[in-house]
Design a protein that fits this description.
By secondary structure, the chain is mainly alpha-helical. Helices cover 50% and strands 9% of the residues. The radius of gyration is 23 Å and the shape is elongated. The relative contact order is 0.14.
């Protein structure tokens, strides 16, 4: 990314605006401001915030993607996100606002906003500003470099986290239902005839 910038290459969302503004050239002196303003402009989610388990799943999945080294971000971005996970700084991420196929732009922007010392978070069970949460946890505020704002929000880790946790809960529920059904059958001294191999059931 840095080599491309030195060569003066035109890069979407780095040296240009976004969407309909992709033909607008951004000067090198405004690159950091562009990424910061992208996070601010997309932090427009609404409704209740995700619970802590879902928030942590989102953060882990996002850190995993960034660590694959295909997003063009510095190592420090991944490091800061992992520090937030390990120290329990949980961004308040509204449940509504994703545009789905284009990515979980709004929810992930709320996550990224805490990284840059903005937004809101929960730390040690208390809600507070993102900046205060980072300071209390001893995590330095991140200054975004070229492309990093775009890399932080352009993904589907929110819907993936929600879907993954739903599958895990469904699997657990099915197991509990099987155990409950077996206990009930045993307590009522029910017949095992219907559980034969003809039905595909196993005992």
């Amino acid at each position: 990314m840095e080599r491309a910038l030195r060569k003066g290459e035109k890069i979407y969302g780095v040296t240009t605006g976004f969407g309909l503004l992709s033909d607008q050239i951004i000067s090198l002196s405004q690159i950091e401001a562009l990424q910061r303003n992208l996070i601010r402009s997309h932090s427009v989610g609404i409704g209740p915030s995700f619970d802590e388990t879902t928030t942590r799943a989102i953060m882990v999945l996002r850190a995993n993607v960034l660590a694959m080294d295909i997003q063009g971000v510095r190592f420090v971005v991944v490091k800061r996100l992992i520090e937030m996970i390990n120290k329990g700084v949980h961004p308040l991420i509204p449940e509504q606002g994703s545009v789905g196929a284009s990515g979980d732009l709004a929810p992930l922007a709320h996550l990224a906003s805490v990284l840059i010392g903005e937004g809101k978070a929960v730390f040690q069970g208390r809600g507070m500003s993102g900046k205060k949460a980072m300071e209390k946890a001893g995590i330095p505020i991140l200054t975004l470099s070229s492309k990093e704002g775009l890399a932080l929000i352009n993904g589907t880790q929110v819907m993936t986290a929600v879907g993954l946790l739903a599958v895990l809960r469904a699997e657990r529920l099915c197991k509990v239902a099987d155990i409950g059904g077996a206990c009930t059958l045993d307590a009522l001294k029910g017949s095992l005839t219907a559980q034969g191999p003809e039905t595909g059931a196993t005992l």
